[in-house]
Amino acid sequence: HVQLVESGGSSAQAGGSLRLSCATSGPISSRNCLGWFRQVPGKEREGVASIHAYTGMTAYAESVKGRFTISRDSGKRALYLQMNSLKTEDTAVYYCAVCASWGQGTQVTVS
Q1: Nearest alpha-carbon partner for 64 in 1, 18, 3
Q2: DSSP character for 25?
Q3: Which of 36, 111, 24 is nearest to 69 (CA)?
Q4: d(Cα 53, Cα 57) in Å, to the nearest integer?
Q5: Do 88 and 110 meet the contact criterion of CB atoms below 8 Å apart?
Q6: Which pLDDT does position 26 carry in this prediction?
Q7: Which of 2, 9, 25, 76 could join 106 via S-S bond, C-beta 3.0 to 4.6 A?
Protein backbone atom coordinates (compact mmCIF):
# COMPACT_ATOMS: atom_id res chain seq x y z
CA HIS A 1 0.00 0.00 0.00
CA VAL A 2 1.45 3.34 -1.09
CA GLN A 3 0.79 6.56 0.78
CA LEU A 4 0.21 9.63 -1.36
CA VAL A 5 0.25 13.33 -0.49
CA GLU A 6 -0.95 15.94 -2.98
CA SER A 7 0.05 19.59 -2.93
CA GLY A 8 -0.18 22.63 -5.14
CA GLY A 9 -3.91 23.17 -5.10
CA SER A 10 -4.89 26.80 -4.92
CA SER A 11 -7.10 29.50 -6.35
CA ALA A 12 -6.35 30.76 -9.83
CA GLN A 13 -7.93 32.98 -12.43
CA ALA A 14 -9.31 31.57 -15.64
CA GLY A 15 -6.52 31.34 -18.15
CA GLY A 16 -3.93 30.84 -15.46
CA SER A 17 -1.80 27.87 -14.51
CA LEU A 18 -1.23 25.61 -11.55
CA ARG A 19 1.05 22.65 -10.94
CA LEU A 20 -0.05 19.83 -8.70
CA SER A 21 2.44 17.49 -7.10
CA CYS A 22 1.95 14.07 -5.55
CA ALA A 23 4.60 12.61 -3.27
CA THR A 24 4.52 8.84 -2.88
CA SER A 25 5.92 6.66 -0.11
CA GLY A 26 6.95 3.83 -2.39
CA PRO A 27 8.55 3.17 -5.75
CA ILE A 28 6.54 3.95 -8.86
CA SER A 29 9.03 3.09 -11.59
CA SER A 30 7.22 -0.07 -12.66
CA ARG A 31 3.64 1.01 -12.08
CA ASN A 32 1.26 1.21 -15.00
CA CYS A 33 -1.57 2.80 -13.06
CA LEU A 34 -0.56 6.33 -12.15
CA GLY A 35 -3.11 9.03 -12.58
CA TRP A 36 -4.93 12.15 -11.55
CA PHE A 37 -8.65 12.31 -10.89
CA ARG A 38 -10.98 15.11 -9.85
CA GLN A 39 -14.31 15.39 -8.15
CA VAL A 40 -16.92 18.09 -7.81
CA PRO A 41 -19.45 17.87 -4.97
CA GLY A 42 -22.48 15.90 -6.05
CA LYS A 43 -20.70 14.35 -9.03
CA GLU A 44 -18.72 11.18 -9.56
CA ARG A 45 -14.97 11.23 -9.48
CA GLU A 46 -13.59 11.44 -13.03
CA GLY A 47 -10.28 10.53 -14.52
CA VAL A 48 -8.22 13.46 -15.75
CA ALA A 49 -4.91 11.97 -16.86
CA SER A 50 -2.86 8.82 -16.57
CA ILE A 51 0.72 7.81 -17.25
CA HIS A 52 2.65 4.58 -17.44
CA ALA A 53 5.65 5.05 -15.18
CA TYR A 54 7.96 2.89 -17.31
CA THR A 55 6.98 3.79 -20.89
CA GLY A 56 5.79 7.32 -20.23
CA MET A 57 2.67 6.78 -22.30
CA THR A 58 -0.06 9.22 -21.33
CA ALA A 59 -3.80 9.55 -21.73
CA TYR A 60 -6.09 12.48 -21.04
CA ALA A 61 -9.75 13.23 -20.66
CA GLU A 62 -11.08 15.12 -23.67
CA SER A 63 -11.92 18.10 -21.48
CA VAL A 64 -8.25 18.68 -20.55
CA LYS A 65 -6.39 17.59 -23.69
CA GLY A 66 -3.93 20.21 -24.83
CA ARG A 67 -4.14 22.06 -21.50
CA PHE A 68 -2.98 19.58 -18.86
CA THR A 69 0.23 17.56 -18.79
CA ILE A 70 0.90 14.61 -16.52
CA SER A 71 4.45 13.64 -15.70
CA ARG A 72 6.36 11.53 -13.21
CA ASP A 73 9.77 11.47 -11.61
CA SER A 74 10.47 7.90 -10.60
CA GLY A 75 13.66 8.88 -8.78
CA LYS A 76 11.76 11.35 -6.62
CA ARG A 77 8.76 9.02 -6.39
CA ALA A 78 6.54 11.87 -7.51
CA LEU A 79 3.69 12.49 -9.89
CA TYR A 80 2.80 15.88 -11.34
CA LEU A 81 -0.06 17.58 -13.16
CA GLN A 82 0.69 20.82 -14.98
CA MET A 83 -2.56 22.66 -15.63
CA ASN A 84 -2.56 25.53 -18.12
CA SER A 85 -5.32 27.65 -19.61
CA LEU A 86 -7.47 26.90 -16.62
CA LYS A 87 -11.24 27.15 -16.93
CA THR A 88 -13.87 27.64 -14.25
CA GLU A 89 -15.07 24.11 -14.94
CA ASP A 90 -11.70 22.79 -13.78
CA THR A 91 -12.70 23.70 -10.24
CA ALA A 92 -12.64 20.48 -8.22
CA VAL A 93 -10.78 18.46 -5.63
CA TYR A 94 -7.90 16.75 -7.41
CA TYR A 95 -6.63 13.35 -6.31
CA CYS A 96 -3.58 11.43 -7.36
CA ALA A 97 -3.70 7.66 -7.53
CA VAL A 98 -1.19 4.84 -7.74
CA CYS A 99 -3.22 1.77 -8.61
CA ALA A 100 -5.56 1.25 -5.61
CA SER A 101 -3.95 3.91 -3.40
CA TRP A 102 -5.35 7.43 -3.24
CA GLY A 103 -4.22 10.72 -1.80
CA GLN A 104 -6.36 12.96 0.37
CA GLY A 105 -7.02 15.46 -2.41
CA THR A 106 -6.12 19.09 -3.04
CA GLN A 107 -8.60 21.83 -3.87
CA VAL A 108 -8.33 23.75 -7.14
CA THR A 109 -10.61 26.75 -7.57
CA VAL A 110 -10.72 28.69 -10.82
CA SER A 111 -12.63 31.93 -11.06
Answers
A1: 18
A2: S
A3: 36
A4: 8
A5: yes
A6: 84
A7: 9
